Amino acid sequence: MLEIQQLTGFNSVGKNKRKKQIVLTHTSRNVSDYISSLKNRYNGKYDKTPHFIIQKDGRVFQMIDPSFYSNILDSEQQNKTSIVICLENLGWLKKNPLNSSYVNWIGDIYKVYTKESGVDTFFGNLTQTHKWKVYLNLVCIYVKCSLYLRPV
C-alpha cells in the first residue's frame, strides 16, 4: 500500500477534477530545500506547486489535492488537466576537478564518496562529467500516482 504524507500550507489557484495527464518534473535540489523554497518564496504566496513530491527513498508527499491545480506549468489549460509529480533529484551536476566535488545549478556542493568508503552517495554511479540520478522504479511511481487520474 502506498503511504502518502499530507503536507499543508501550499498554494493552489483553482479546482478542476477532470485530469487527463501526469507531468513529471524534478526538484533540482534535495527535498527539504525544495519544500522550504515552495513554502517561503514570495512571502508564502508562491503558486507553482506540484501535487506530489517523491523522495529518493520512495516516500511520497502530497502538497495539494489532485482536484486542485497550481501555476506550475506555462499553460493554464495544462495546469487544470494535469497532475504534477516532482521527483527528488539534484539535476545536472558539474564536476569540479580541483577537489572531486560536484556542483548543481544553484552552486550547492556535493562531495563524491567511493564504494570503498562505505558511504552511499545521493546520486549513485558517477562516471561522466554531468550526472543525473536515475530512477529505476519510475514506472512503479507513475502507476501508483496514476490512481488519481480521472476519466475525461
Overall description:
The model is unreliable at 114-120 and 123-134 (pLDDT under 50). The relative contact order is 0.22. It contains 3 helices and 11 strands; from the N terminus they run E-E-E-H-E-E-E-H-E-E-E-E-E-H. With 152 residues, the chain is α/β, with parallel strands linked by helices. The chain has 2 domains: 4-89 and 135-148, Peptidoglycan recognition protein-like (Lysozyme-like), CATH 3.40.80; 93-131, no CATH class. The chain has helices at residues 31-40, 76-81, 138-145; strands at residues 4-6, 14-15, 21-26, 52-54, 60-62, 68-69, 82-87, 93-96, 101-103, 109-111, 130-131. Strands 1-5-4-7-3 form a 5-stranded mixed sheet. Strands 10-9-8-11 form a 4-stranded antiparallel sheet, with no helix packed on it. It has a two-stranded antiparallel ribbon with strand order 2-6. It is globular. A hairpin with a 5-residue loop joins strand 9 (101-103) and strand 10 (109-111).
Keywords:
16% helix; globular; Lysozyme-like; 2 domains; 5-stranded mixed β-sheet; 3 helices; 152 residues; 24% strand; single chain; 4-stranded antiparallel β-sheet; alpha/beta
- Gross morphology is globular
Give the CATH class of the largest domain.
Alpha Beta
* Number of distinct helices: 3
Q: By CATH's scheme, which homologous superfamily of the largest domain applies?
A: Peptidoglycan recognition protein-like
Strand order of the largest sheet: 1-5-4-7-3
Number of strands: 11
Q: Give me the secondary-structure category.
A: alpha/beta
Biggest β-sheet description: 5 strands, mixed
Mean pLDDT: 77
CATH topology value of the largest domain: Lysozyme-like
Fraction in beta strands: 15-25%
pLDDT < 50 stretches: 114-120, 123-134
Helix content: 10-25%
**Amino-to-carboxy terminus distance:** 26 Å
Q: How many domain units?
A: 2
What does the radius of gyration come to? Answer: 17 Å
CATH architecture of the largest domain: 3-Layer(aba) Sandwich
SSE ordering: EEEHEEEHEEEEEH
